[in-house]
Sequence to fold (332 residues):
Amino acid sequence: MVVIIDDSDQSISLAVGVLRAGGIVAVPTETVYGLAADASEPAAVSKVFTAKGRPFAHPLIVHLGAGASLEDWAAHVPDDAFRLAAAFWPGPLSMVLPRHPSVSTVVTGGRDTVALRMPAHPVALRLLAAFGGGLAAPSANRFGNVSPTTAADVRADLGDEVELIIDGGPCEIGVESTIVELVGGRAGRQAMVTILRAGAVGPEALAGVLGHAVGTTARGPARAPGMLASHYAPRTPLELWPENTEDGAARRVADLVSSGARVGALCLGRIEVPGAAVAWDAGGDAAVFARSLYQWLRRADAENLDILVVVLPPPEGISLAVRDRLRRAATR
Ligand code: TXA
Ligand code: MG
Fold:
C-alpha cells in the first residue's frame, strides 16, 4: 500500500529512513516527480529499475544536494561544467560527465559517464540535505509512460510498486531537465557540449554562459540510452500540426467530429473547435503549455479520445522541449 506524505520535517525524516534502509521514495522536483534511491547502494538502485519496468541499460540521473562536489561524482570536471553548475544549479539542467570510479555502474547503465543534476525544488533539496548523499532518480512513471507532475500521477502509475510518495504539489516546469553531455575540456580548453535532451534550459542560455556554441544530437540511442523515439506516450493517438496552423487544425477537427470521432484539441493560443469533446489552450503562454502538457495527455486518455489534434508551439525557449515530447508522444 502506497502512502502519500506531506513535506513536513517529520515526513522528510521518514523518507530519509526509507532511503537509508535501501528503499525507494517518490520525490517532487521542479521538472517532474522522481523515483529516488540511494545512489551508493546498487541493490537500492536496482529496485528503481524493477519498479519502473525499465531496462537496466538505461542510465539514471544522480541528484545532488547543495553541498555536493562535482569531483566526488565525475572523474574529470571541465571548467565548462563548473560554469554551467554555477549558472543553472539548482535547476533543470543535467550534465553527463565521465563517471567517477566510485559511482556504481548500476546507476549508469554500465556506461563510463554519469548524469548529474541539482534540482530546484525546496522539498527535494531538504531531502537531499537530510539524506546527505546522492539520489539516483528517473522520472517516477512506468517505463514508456507519461512523466508524473503531481503526487496523484505517481500513485496512479506506480502505486503498487512504491511505498512512499512525498507530495510537494504540482511541478513548476512540467517537462524533464535539459541533458547536456560534456566531452573533453582538459587543461583549460573548452569542452564539447551537446544537448542530448531539450528542456527548460535552452541552447541560447547555455551558449550565453559558456561563450561558445552548443550542439544538438540526433536522438540516438547510442548517445542517450533510454531516449527512445517513442516515449512519453499516452494511449490516445496524437495528430501534430505545425506552429500557427490553428485554422487548418480546426477544419481537421471539424471533419473528424463529423465522421463521428471523439476528438480533442490542444494548442498554445486560441482555437475554435465546435463539437470537440475537449479543447485545451495555454492562453498563449509557453511556460503554461509546458507545465500542463503531461496533465493534458493524461486527461486525453481519461476522456477516451479517439484522437487529439495538437498545434505545436513555435520552436523557441521551453517550447523546444514541448515539441520534442509531443513528437515522441505521437510516435507509435
Ligand atoms: O528532470 C529530470 O531530469 C527528471 C527528474 C526526476 O530529475 N528525471 C528524468 O529521468 O527525466 P529519466 O531517467 O526519466 O531520464 C533520464 C535520461 C535517460 O533516459 C538517459 O537518456 C539520460 O537521462 N542519461 C542518464 N545518464 C546518462 C548518461 N550517462 N549518458 C547519457 N544519457 C544519460
Ligand atoms: Mg523518464
Summary: The chain has a mean pLDDT of 95. The chain has nine helices and 15 strands.
